[in-house]
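Before relying on records like the one below, remember that each one covers exactly one chain. Contacts with other chains, cofactors or solvent are not represented anywhere in the record.
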Amino acid sequence: MINRPEESEDYLWELWERALKKGNLSLRETLIKENIDYLNWSREKVLSCWGEKGTEKLKEKWLKDNPNTEKEIEDHYNELDLYIPELSSWHAIEKNLTILKIVEFMDFCREKNCKKFLDYGSGIGSAGIFFNYYGFSTTLADISDSMLNYSKWRFKKHRRKSIFVDLKEESLADDSYDCAISIEVLEHVLNPVKVIKNIYKSLKNGGYLFVTTPFFKDEERPQHLIHDSGVIKEFNKIGFKTISVGEENIYRLYKKDY
């Protein structure tokens, strides 16, 4: 995935904002209002969980729960409303590089005539709303009731439709999607190769996958469990062909090989 000359940061960010902000509100204020309305929190409480403050609270919660098994990790994320404002603040950072990469991937998928999009580990649903706004049919998959419920509420508010998959209880259909993303997910699971296999099965032949792979230790985010980038080698063994690799080996575009 290569930036074309016309795809400046301003252009990419405008595409993101256009899909997510409401009325005359800025993107930041749109996301804050959505947090307030859904959580029934005060503005002050929402902002106390934004940005670095939210990251610190998530760290404290993780250390308190101290999950170790796959089931314990699943339970930790299942009812964690703290992620709603923390992720919202991240999605509002102007020209955030990861967001720009997601937008670039959407534009790439439009050029490839992709129609069906999967967000695996979909969080608060921003990428799903974004892809749906630009004409993709969308499926959002996550293990967290908190994230899925908030995403459903946001889709209704934005008057958009999607399929939602609870990965605790449901499986994705095989050979169903033209394109998929898994952003800031793989480092949170004990077995990222298992996740990649699930996504591979769900993609059609020739389908594209964009993932982030920050497989390094982060003192502020003990939830990041995978610190060995060697696991990336296993992705190609599954059947993915590497199309491109971005900054610091984090942004990776794959194609499901025939």
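Strands lie at 116-120, 137-142, 163-166, 177-182, 203-212, 240-245, 251-256.
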